[in-house]
Design a protein that fits this description.
Elements: H1 2-20, H2 35-56, H3 60-71, H4 73-76, H5 81-87, H6 93-111, H7 115-138, H8 164-178, H9 183-207, H10 212-228, H11 233-254
Amino acid sequence: MRTELNLTRRLDRVFARLDREPERPAHLDVPRMSRHRVVLFTATLAFYLAIVWAVVITSWLVRLDWQVMFFRPYQQWSEIHWFVDYYVVLGQRGPTAVMVAAWLGWRSWRQHTLRPLLTLGASLLLLNITVGAAKYGMGRLGPHYATVIGSNEMGLGGDIFPSGHTANAVVTWGILAYLASTPTARRWLSAVSAVTSLGVGMATVYLGTHWLSDVLLGWAAGLLILLALPWCEPLIARAETAVFDLRDRWRARRGRTAPAPTVPVPVVLKPRTAPAGQPAPAREPVASVRGPRAPIHLAPGPHTARSERTPLTPAGSRRPPHADRLPRGASQPARPVSGG
């Protein structure tokens, strides 16, 4: 009995505490990242910084870059050059953004939400800011513009480190897995996006447009953006609410009915009555406002009524005239007697 009483008191204290705490709006709550995601984000960030440090100090990774460049894969396997030229398009910003935006736009229309498109826009914005700042901040030259053999080519005004093609492939195709509605679809899309981004990175190394370390840093940069997207969800929710509010106000302003035009009310004039003891004034005759008729022009000669005319045929009339249609005073002609 005492145990039940203590439990009841504890529950009362919890409910009282909950009643005192004000409720926060849903869009102000920062989503909690899972422990697995936090660990993966931390490990990816450490890998990113390690790649940058290895290139800055011209370590074994830079020597590996030069060895791959001297190997010239585009000459060793020249028969697949045409395929790689087309495959590397899967990492270009314009074509991939258009394809993915078309699919996510259709999903937004079906689900009546802007979250897929806004999430894609937020990820591409983060990609441009972070990768663009790293490119121009480190200023590394590419393999085709290298000046000293074995150097890291850092700080020479280049924009090759990290690989933008690789990071864009990771983000653009990975956003489909991030927005998947079922766990099975998420796993399959994650595998497809990983293979696609891996192939795009290797294609840039094959063509000689990027160092191998550029591709490694591009993979890490794209993965960091995907892992950081849950922190952007409150801003995405606010943006969606603002867009829908703006749409509702615009519809309300457009659908507002215009004021009905005022119709003049006819005024009925009462006849003026004469004062008592005086005769009512006589009304003046009102002249007709109808103008004279235009003269009717007829052809010269005697004119007969239509009922008095003999019906005509192209060969002339052979029917005898009717007695009831003859003019008054005219005698009926005698019928010819045929001889038998």
